[in-house]
UniProtKB/TrEMBL annotation:
Family annotation (PANTHER family): PROTEIN YJDM, PROTEIN YJDM-RELATED
Family: Belongs to the YjdM family.
NCBIfam families: phnA
Protein YjdM N-terminal domain residues: 3-33
Gene3D superfamilies referenced in this protein's UniProt entry, alphabetically: 2.20.25.10, SH3 Domains (2.30.30.40)
Species this chain originates from: Massilia terrae
Domain Protein YjdM C-terminal: 48-113
Name of the protein described by the UniProt record: Zinc ribbon domain-containing protein YjdM
Highest taxon, organism lineage: Bacteria
Length: 114
């Protein structure tokens, strides 16, 4: 069973699909198209690099600008290759390991897919 989204008008959880492409709320009689609900921001997140390429787990990326590490940890130089990235849903998008630095978090806007 799939779950239906709450009513956008009254937030009721008792919504259902009428079989004709609409969701229906029995409490306030609001109807809205199924398609719009599926395009909501809750849809699977797509990660893109600085050039707009779609990134996936395991990709190799190149750092496009010098990144200073917090706490005087050094600088990850522009052009550094980062292998086997893992995409995460936090303020930094990429978990990875960089030779000489160890585990790191990066932002997708500062990398380009190799
Ligand atoms: Zn409603």
């Amino acid at each position: 069973m799939s779950t239906f989204p709450p009513c956008p008008q009254c937030a009721s959880q008792l919504t259902y699909e009428d079989g004709m492409g609409n969701y229906v709320c029995p409490e306030c009689a609001h109807e809205w198209p199924v398609q719009a609900a599926e395009a909501a921001p809750e849809a699977a997140r797509v990660y893109r690099d600085s050039a707009g390429n779609v990134l996936q787990d395991g990709d190799t990326v190149t750092v496009i600008k010098d990144l200073k590490l917090k706490g005087g940890g050094g600088v990850v130089k522009q052009g550094t290759k980062v292998k086997n990235i893992r995409l995460v849903d936090s303020d930094h998008d990429i978990d990875c390991k960089i030779d000489g630095f160890g585990a790191m978090s990066l932002k997708t806007e500062f990398v380009k897919k190799s």
